[in-house]
Amino acid sequence: MFNERALELSIMELFKGEGYTYLAGEQIHRERTEVLLVDDLRQYLYNRYAKDGITPSEVDGILLRLRNISGTVYEANKAVHKLLCDGFILNREDRTQKDIYIELIDYDNPENNIFKAVNQFEIEGVGGQLRIPDGIVFVNGIPVVVLEFKSVVKENTTIMDAYTQLTVRYRRDIPELLKYNAFVVISDGVNNKYGSLFSPYDYFY
Predict the structure, then answer these.
(1) Are 49 and 56 spatial neighbours (Cβ–Cβ below 8 Å)?
(2) pLDDT tens, residue by residue, 150-200
(3) Closest Cα to residue 149, out of 42, 56, 12?
């Protein structure tokens, strides 16, 4: 039976084939309210900015900057998207040192990034609500893509149900995850679509 679980695992295999590290959510030790893979983001920042002598407290400051972005899901997402695309200036702890231009993703040297595909990543959201996205793609510990699957062989479920799960339930219950989102993917194993979290279904490609 090609059910949602089989579809989920087959998609994870595709990511592994592309060089992503695959992990099941239960393998990641963290608070369930934490949506970043903090160790990955720290590792990336230390490696990328080692020559600049980036300090632990400066790395902590970058994490705090990301976590403190607030507002509606749309406003927070827009602010994060700007940081991901444009980077930002980090004012040094030691004011005698030159400020660092921080890029959270190394676009020029993709091999310097940490790519992970994770399934069944439990997230405790608003009011203690527990949600478990089928798949999340992390780049340097930042959850940039969320995937949701519905099996085409299961009666009374469609790819539209996956769209609703992402854009209504997840947006309502786990906004902290979605503030980092670049785009979402929905699939029933036959039809596959992607689009912005904020797009009507008709605009999914």
Answers:
(1) no
(2) 876 666 678 899 999 999 999 999 999 999 999 999 998 888 999 999 999
(3) 12
